[in-house]
Amino acid sequence: MAHPITIDTLPGAGRSATHLVQCGPANWVMLQDGDDLTLIDGGYPGNADDVEESIARIGRSMGDVQGALLTHAHVDHLGGLAIVAKRHGFSIYLDEIEAAHARGDVDEQISPVGICRLLPRRGTLPWLATVVRLGALGHQHVADPVTFAGDQPLDLPGAPKPVATHGHTDGHSSFLAADGEILISGDALITAHPTSSRGTGPQLLPDPFHHDAAAAHAALTNFSSLDATVLIPGHGPIHRGSVAAAIAQL
Ligand SMILES: [Zn+2]
Known about the structure:
Layout (H helix, E strand, L loop, with lengths): L5 E6 L4 E8 L2 E8 L2 E5 L7 H10 L7 E5 L5 H14 L3 E4 L3 H5 L8 H7 L5 H10 L12 E3 L12 E4 L8 E5 L4 E5 L26 H7 L10 E4 L5 E2 L2 H7 L1
Parallel strand pairs: 4-5, 5-6, 6-7, 10-11
Antiparallel strand pairs: 1-2, 2-3, 3-4, 8-9, 9-10, 11-12
Helix pairs in contact: 1-2
The structure holds zinc ion.
């Protein structure tokens, strides 16, 4: 079933661009270099068709996807991506520490106890109903991910540069794009969430979502020295302004 999507396109140098797709509670990103694409994350399992639709909307086809990056293996980022990657036969790149999570050897999803801690929040029940319909209880895995370590730019369209942000999950990774101008932060830093009472703006997810909340808080220091002036988060809208300044305020 198709869901409404909105796409924000940030043009870069030449025929390059960064596209943020927002689809209900999920975000994903496309880095475009000429005709070629790198996909970053892909929503819930129920978003697989929406990922394909988003690529058609920017005038490209699935054959243009040269590979995909995964910020982390939670179901709202891996679910749709794993299905689309299997359908079209492209590789999924992720931090080597995240590989066990992506293969399903370990489980770092929010626990039932964590969900219970969120229940007093006003947005939690409607959010739960939505994500269960999108396949949040289903399991998607990546049997043979391509792993990376360190911060060297990857050989994919847009030359994304990993920024290790371990904590939300053990091997969570963010990525710099557009020569460091844009930070794609995944769930290390978000700008809105249905269960958050903080409105819109750079913020951390509520602690029950983090596999290791203390490490997730500490990982923000890895953003403090960045020159990025645009934040594309795993949840919420684009934030324009110095990422380092936003971290200092947090
Ligand atoms: Zn998420």
